[in-house]
Known about the structure:
Layout: E1 2-8, E2 11-17, E3 21-26, E4 38-40, E5 43-45, E6 48-53, H1 71-82, H2 87-103, E7 106-114, H3 118-130, E8 136-142, H4 153-162, E9 167-170, H5 178-195, E10 198-203, H6 214-224, E11 230-234, H7 243-256, E12 259-262, H8 264-270, H9 286-292, E13 296-298, H10 315-325, H11 331-342, E14 363-366, H12 371-377, E15 382-385, E16 388-390
Parallel strand pairs: 1-4, 6-7, 7-8, 8-9, 9-10, 10-11, 11-12, 12-13
Antiparallel strand pairs: 1-2, 2-3, 5-14, 14-15, 15-16
Helix pairs in contact: 2-3, 5-6, 6-7, 10-11
Amino acid sequence: MLFRDVWLEGDRCDVRAGETVRVIGPAGTLTPDPGEEVLKGGTLAPPSAEPHVHLDAALLGARMPNKSGTLREGIANWSVLREELTVPDVLDRAGQVLAWYESYGTLRVRTHVDTGSLDAVGALLHLRERWRGRVDVQIVAFPQEGILRAKGRRERWEEAVRMGVDAVGAIPHFERTTEEGWNSVRLAFDLAEKTGLRLDFHCDETDDPSSRNLEVVCAETIDRGLAGRVVAGHCTAMHSYENPYAAKVCELVATSGVQVIANPLDNVVLQGRYDGYPRRRGITRVDQLWAAGASVGIGHDSVMDPWYRLGTANLVDAAYMLVHVAQLTSEAEMLRVMRTLWTENHRPFGAAPVIEEGGPATFVWWAASDPIEVLRTRQKPRVWREGRSAGR
Length: 392
């Protein structure tokens, strides 16, 4: 195939590809070969990565609607639905959503799985192998209701890790006390060090400015030398911090090498529920984290689940929401938000893919003229993996 006058990393280029990328040249320098498919204009980018989603709960939102729209009701509804899970059901729903991700050009997906259901853990481990070669799946052992709040939860969490997940999770702000929250962070680090796994926290997903687990995560990361192996998702309490403390935390995040994952679709509707007016947006301080030099990813988080009834598995939707609610509307900011999907979002998986001569022809093409137009229109792309159509 031949792409002519396509946007590629800020330049207009011609790109010829088969199973690999054969030639990249300035726009107008390559002419079609006989029988070659030609695509004119548009935007070419590496595939995206999803750093934060819950496939075990996907597509369950209509079974028990969240009437209040709160995070706590979502957790309460999920605790009921979780008891009804079966392996075939999880496989079916999660597989549907992975197919959606693939169709939108997301070929790496990190999913959390509630360790309260070891059947769900086993199902997603099976799904990871089933989808190998199409979508690369990572699984985080996530104790949705904490590990210290009740007997047996820590044991199931540890068992899920032994079953073969990719990362250790925790939810310190949901533990009973501040001290137990901090203890849960340290227990997660201990378990990750013992098993050689990465860490991925749900961290300070609250409007409460006294929720201060992120600094503990950062300090443990520094002290244990685990920079680049730790993710903190949500971090919405940061939007309620006093500015001097927020500045301290942003600097600490950058120093530690912890990556923060913003989840704008969920958090803009789940947070601020205790507010009258004015009502907080509930998004972590992306612009200030960027300014401090921290790495920020963008997650879809929920796809039609007990927390967020909507959702498409199109990461451009999450990027579009972030641009609005975080007021990242300059040309440079919108471009950075879009580029995050195929650069920093890959950090939990390792190196971000690049499009280069001799490399695999694994990429995503939108008919829209540049990434900002992709963001505006949110159209469906065409996707190739090693030169073969994917997600169709």
